[in-house]
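Worked example 2:
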Amino acid sequence: MSEPIGRMVNMSEKYLAKIAALLRKAESTDNEHEADAFLQAAQRLATLSSVDLAVARSHIAATQMRPTPTQRTVSIGEPGKRGLKTYVQLFLEIGRANNLTCDIASNSSRVFAYGFDTDIDAAQALYASLVVQMVRASDAYIKSGRYAEELVARQVRVEGSGRYSYWAGNMRYDYVEQERAVHPSTARINFQFAFARRIGKRLAAAKQSAQKQAVAEDRGSGVELVLRAREVELADHYRATSTARGSWRATSSRSGYSELSRRAGDKAGRSARLGAEKAIGGEQRRIGA
């Protein structure tokens, strides 16, 4: 009775080992196209492993022990650190491609990931690598000073009669509009947000490709039905477990907007490479190393 479960655990370990090997290859190559191919392959394999695990689960009797959805808390950063929302956005993009549903702490310092262990492992592996690249790329962009080439209109309060005025209570406030260079913190937030969104698009494309391949190669195992059943199981688990209230937004009007920085972040996201990840056999590098 326990043999199918043993096979499933071995299957999981086998796929994680293969994903780790792809991550190491992506880290070691300086060829942008090779790195992108390894990224696609890593995400495709992660997706395929989920499909296979789901198929295996469907053949285990209901009375047997089998993997079930779980919830894991993922630390994003220290509360109050500026730009945490861009880190959260990166994890959400990766998690979405790995079949995770996430709740976010109100201060964006933690993410509560709901899904199967192997999917959460894969998401954390990709995040640990890509967040390092995101920070390095945004640091390089800020140091280059290119963000300052973009000017934005800002309202500056002045004494006396300005071009615009408004009343608040019994007080009159005057201000004029002036053009100023984008602030470095605004540039960084926009860069990292665009980086995360581009990573999400790349991983979503890899996931879609992997699922199409799995369905095309289906030989009576009922992949499409299993995938649907898996979605329902995950959704039921989330509804029964999550206590989240309200909504979370990746950006706010206070953070400002920079088109130049977003284009630069998107470009960096297109050429991002995967790094090694300690959780699946590699060496996790600290940010800034």
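The CA atoms of residues 8 and 205 lie 27 Å apart. Confidence is low (pLDDT under 50) at residues 1-9, 275-289.
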